[in-house]
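Researcher: We're teaching a course module on how sequence relates to structure. For the next exercise, students receive a sequence and then see the predicted structure as tokens, so they can try to spot secondary structure elements on their own. Here is the exercise chain.
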Amino acid sequence: MKKEKPKGIRSEVVIPEGITASFQDGVMTVKGKKGEVKKLLSHPLATLSIADGKVIISSDKTGRKNKAIAGTYKALIKNMFRGVTDGYEYKMKAVAAHFPMNIALQNNMVVIKNFLGEKKPRTCSVPKGVEVKIDANDITVTGIERDVVGQTAALIEQTCRITNRDRRIFQDGIFITQKPGRETR
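Model: And here is the predicted structure for the students to work with:
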């Protein structure tokens, strides 16, 4: 007698202590000691439900796309849990070899003055829910949503991108030196 395999995919994520999670109308809401995160998680290939202190991700079929969506949802939910308990922090360093640049925070905008001797300042907006601290040449970007914090750090880094010059000589800019989970060089 052959044992029948269960059809479909079922994945569970345990809700940690001190966190409340709810799922309504395709929006996952997670509350913790650092704050609240809401994320739209609605896809026709996967369904989400909350029962017995667990978030259950299920799908009727076992195809490659179904597994991919279920895995993505599982990772997003884990990131939400970590964000509301510990938060996320990116560390950046400003390097100025030719002209000393001035970095300031004005009205939710990071303003970089005198980059490569330019007269016009370069600016980058900071979204709501992300905090930027500037200490001389060190910049710290913190928040509870991993994707928003990472995107803000990347935008600050891209604001100082150099084009039409030799990168071996013009090494000025603002660079990410540490991100959650790993340290860069």
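Model: If you want an answer key for the exercise: The first strand starts at residue 9 and ends at 14. Residues 9-85 form a domain with the Outer Surface Protein A; domain 3 fold (CATH 3.90.930.12).
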